[in-house]
Amino acid sequence: MSTTHLLTFPALLMLLYIPSSDPVTVTTSKAKVEVHENTNAVLSCEFRTEKETNPRVEWKKRGKDVSYVYFDGDFTGSFKGRASIDGATMTLRGVTQKDSGVYQCEVTARQDKIKLGEVIVTLNVLVPPHAPSCEVPEKVMKGFSAELHCKDKLSVPAATYSWYKDNKPLYTGNHQEIHYTLDPKTGTLKFKTVSESDEGQYRCEASNGVGAPKSCAGRHMKITEFELNMTIVIALEVAALLLLLSCCVAICLCCRRGCCPCCRKSKAETKQSRTKTNYNPPTDPRHYKHTQSFVL
Fold first, then answer.
1. Distance between CA atoms of 184 and 241, rounded to whole angstroms?
2. In terms of C-beta density within 10 A (0-12 exposed, 13-18 middle, 19 or more buried), how is residue 239 classed?
3. What is the overall mean pLDDT for the chain?
4. Looking at residues 72-97, what average pLDDT do you find?
5. Under DSSP, is residue 14 helix (H, G, I), strand (E, B) or coil?
6. b/e sequence 107-126, b meaning 16+ C-beta within 10 Å
């Protein structure tokens, strides 16, 4: 029985010292990283090699063109001076929206059977709302339509919008008294027909759940009645008079040149009346008798 133990024990020792046949493997503890703007972002990258004791670590950022972030033991470009690396895990300090994107961690083990391993980490930098740009018409004529616009192009994720009139929120639901539509995604407020009650101060608020909501400065929208200015009235009267004179002149010229059918007909009748011989019977009875006897 002791002989059996002597035979099996060295075999067990040999099994313990057999090197692993697993190739280089690269993993991450968090494939999607979301952080607020101006904070630090940790991009995890962990590796295990078969034989290589000093593997080569590189970080790249994908896009239209792949660019190096960490290469040959140093950071490049805008990452230089604001990034650090621990093993293969990279930390970016004071990130901005420009840092958002897809990053690739590559580990090269020259002595391993499979010499290259890689993992992808996506970074999304969240940006709180900024004061949106608002478009509010100064004057709108009563009974006409009106549109108010609001936009924040910098917030990530995209902001949603709400409108306030005289610091009171405008509802987006379906109410019978509401004669406007409000799209919280585009920030557009539309009035089908404005009335006097729509006059007031309007402001828009942008929010995206990252930071505090931001508003634009309130702007006053005035509802006016349709009024005819005296200058406009005089201008219309002068225009009508000029149009009438132009028509008269055109008709006269047309008649002179014979372009008008009515004028041509009138001239023809006048000419015919001039050439026609008119016969007037005699009024003296004696002359009538003399003529009759001559005929017999």
1. 53
2. exposed
3. 83
4. 95
5. helix
6. bbbeebeebebebebebbbb
